[in-house]
């Protein structure tokens, strides 16, 4: 596959996986699978990290726009109220970066979606999200390159390919994401003693 088409494919997968509300598709795993299939040389890995990170970060504008468009319906959601109250805090952006980097938990999708409904400033959100997604890609893609081959070999008796593993993980992350979105985060934070006041 030509370099330009491979990077475009990785960017597109990253964009679509992160722009679709309520999903936890592992775009780095798909990018890693494409690299394994076509070219996993160090320069290609570096380009894939940038393409996937930028695609994932830019796509969050879609999530933000969807949240803003649904502000009327989401206005009474307790999580949106929580985001609105804490969006001016430095801890808000620290939490955004940490959640965006954590593997397997698409919580930042819901935080960004809720930020649209809460009208959190978009430019600052984008700057933090770009940094977070580049870090995430830079960590996950090399680790997955090393691990995916070992896992595929280990499960070869089941006939599972790296692509099959990517689909299984994506479905699992989507289900996990739906469960996480349904949680009442304000009550949970209160029970843990991390949130006080009205």
TrEMBL record:
<keyword id="KW-0812">Transmembrane</keyword>
<feature type="transmembrane region" description="Helical">
    <location>
        <begin position="91"/>
        <end position="107"/>
    </location>
</feature>
<keyword id="KW-0472">Membrane</keyword>
<feature type="transmembrane region" description="Helical">
    <location>
        <begin position="154"/>
        <end position="181"/>
    </location>
</feature>
<feature type="transmembrane region" description="Helical">
    <location>
        <begin position="43"/>
        <end position="70"/>
    </location>
</feature>
<keyword id="KW-1133">Transmembrane helix</keyword>
<protein>
    <submittedName>
        <fullName>Uncharacterized protein</fullName>
    </submittedName>
</protein>
């Amino acid at each position: 596959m030509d370099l330009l088409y491979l990077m475009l494919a990785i960017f597109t997968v990253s964009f679509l996986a992160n722009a679709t509300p309520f999903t936890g598709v592992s775009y780095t795993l798909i990018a890693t699978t494409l690299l394994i299939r076509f070219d996993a040389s160090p320069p290609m890995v570096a380009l894939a990290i940038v393409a996937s990170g930028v695609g994932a970060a830019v796509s969050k504008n879609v999530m933000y726009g969807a949240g803003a468009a649904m502000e009327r319906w989401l206005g009474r959601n307790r999580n949106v109220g929580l985001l609105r109250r804490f969006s001016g805090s430095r801890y808000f952006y620290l939490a955004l970066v940490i959640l965006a980097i954590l593997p397997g938990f698409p919580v930042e999708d819901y935080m960004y979606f809720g930020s649209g409904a809460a009208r959190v400033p978009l430019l600052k959100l984008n700057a933090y999200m770009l940094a977070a997604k580049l870090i995430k890609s830079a960590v996950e893609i090399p680790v997955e390159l090393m691990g995916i081959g070992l896992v595929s070999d280990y499960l070869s008796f089941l006939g599972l390919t790296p692509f099959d593993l990517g689909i299984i993980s994506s479905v699992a992350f989507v289900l996990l994401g739906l469960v996480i979105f349904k949680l009442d985060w304000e009550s949970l934070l209160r029970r843990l003693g991390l949130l006080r006041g009205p």
